[in-house]
Each structure stands twice: as structure tokens, then as C-alpha cells.
Amino acid sequence: MDRAVGSKLCLNFDAEPPGTTPALLTVVLGRWAVTADATAPSAPNALVQTERFPVGLHFPRCLVAGLTLENLAAQVKFKPLAGDNDQAGGIIFRAQDPETYYVFRANLLDDMALFKSSAGTRWALGRFQARSEAWQSLRVEARGPEIRCYWNDRQVIEVQDGSFTSGQVGLWTISDSVSAFDDFEIERI
């Protein structure tokens, strides 16, 4: 499932048995399980969040256990699979607790956005109009207060925000999204 390459952690979920949650991930909300997927960027498996919350704002997420970073680069391949209200997924980073974090997410039914969440309130720090049903690449780089977000290797958002200086890293979805993830890489920079 994972391998360390220098200061980089790479999670591709291929060594994990389908139906299990990878041991390196701590589930905060949702049902995260390895699923066989021949279309995954590094087949045969992907990680899929399948629990649907059709009413209210819920944020299924999982965090890499025991990993806290300040300056980081994280990227993942993401594909929206289903959802009536949302079809989103993204990278959560500098997570302080279940309600305090940044997230860079793509939503097939909306746009790309970088959000700050604190005490149950979210603020959009930046947005970019793009959508895709296909596997896509999301990348975030955070150095001090500078945060840069990339979609398919193209920088789409850049902001300065020093609200959270370090924290945990993981994956994120919203409400009734069913989303697949593959090739999750995290690097201390």
C-alpha cells in the first residue's frame, strides 16, 4: 500500500485487500475502502469513499495516522463517481481537529476551490472554474502562509493565509459524493 521514497510517502492502495480500510488511514467520517478498479491510474485498486449523506453538510474524511506537517506538497488522482448534490473530492491539509483545516477540492457539479474551515464555518480562499468526470490530478503546496493549488499540473489558485501552520494530511469528500482516489503522495518540503 505504501512506500517511503526519501521524504515522500506514496499510497497507491494496490497491496491492500479490496473491502478494507488501509491501516495507515484514520477515518474521521465516512466509509473508506479499497476497491478493485481497472481504470485507476495505478490499477488494480483505488480508495473509494462510499457513504452518502444526502441531507446537511457532512465532510467524510480520512487522515494519514501519525503524520503532522508544516511545509508540504501533497497530490492525489481523483475521480468523481456519483452524487446528486455533490460529486467532490480533495486533499485536506494542516488539519488541527475535525473542524479546523484547509481543503483543496474539485467538484464535478461546481468548481475547484480552496477552503479554510474553522469551528464549523468554511470560507472560500480561492476558486477556479473547471470540471471533469475523468481521473484528474489535484496537488497542493503549502510553504509558510503561501498555498498553491494545481489541477492536472496547472496552477489554478495561489493565496497567502497563515491561519494554520501545521497539521495532519488526508483525503476529503462532501455530503453525498462517492469519490475514488489513487496515487496519494505526501512530501515534507
List the helices and strands and how they pair.
Blueprint: E1 2-5, E2 8-11, E3 25-29, E4 32-36, E5 45-49, E6 61-69, E7 72-82, E8 88-97, E9 100-107, E10 112-118, E11 121-128, E12 136-143, E13 146-151, E14 154-160, E15 167-172, E16 178-188
Antiparallel strand pairs: 1-2, 2-16, 3-6, 4-5, 5-16, 6-15, 7-12, 7-16, 8-9, 8-15, 9-10, 10-11, 12-13, 13-14
Short summary:
Helix content is 0%, strand content 60%. It has strands at residues 2-5, 8-11, 25-29, 32-36, 45-49, 61-69, 72-82, 88-97, 100-107, 112-118, 121-128, 136-143, 146-151, 154-160, 167-172, 178-188. The strands form two sheets. Strands 1, 2, 4, 5, 7, 12, 13, 14 and 16 form a nine-stranded antiparallel beta sheet that branches. The chain has a seven-stranded antiparallel beta sheet with strand order 3-6-15-8-9-10-11, with no helix packed on it.
How does this structure look, described?
The protein has 189 residues and is mainly beta. It has strands at residues 2-5, 8-11, 25-29, 32-36, 45-49, 61-69, 72-82, 88-97, 100-107, 112-118, 121-128, 136-143, 146-151, 154-160, 167-172, 178-188. The strands form 2 sheets. Strands 1, 2, 4, 5, 7, 12, 13, 14 and 16 form a 9-stranded antiparallel sheet that branches. A 7-stranded antiparallel sheet has the order 3-6-15-8-9-10-11, with no helix packed on it. A hairpin with a 2-residue loop joins strand 8 and strand 9. The model has no long low-confidence stretch (mean pLDDT 94).
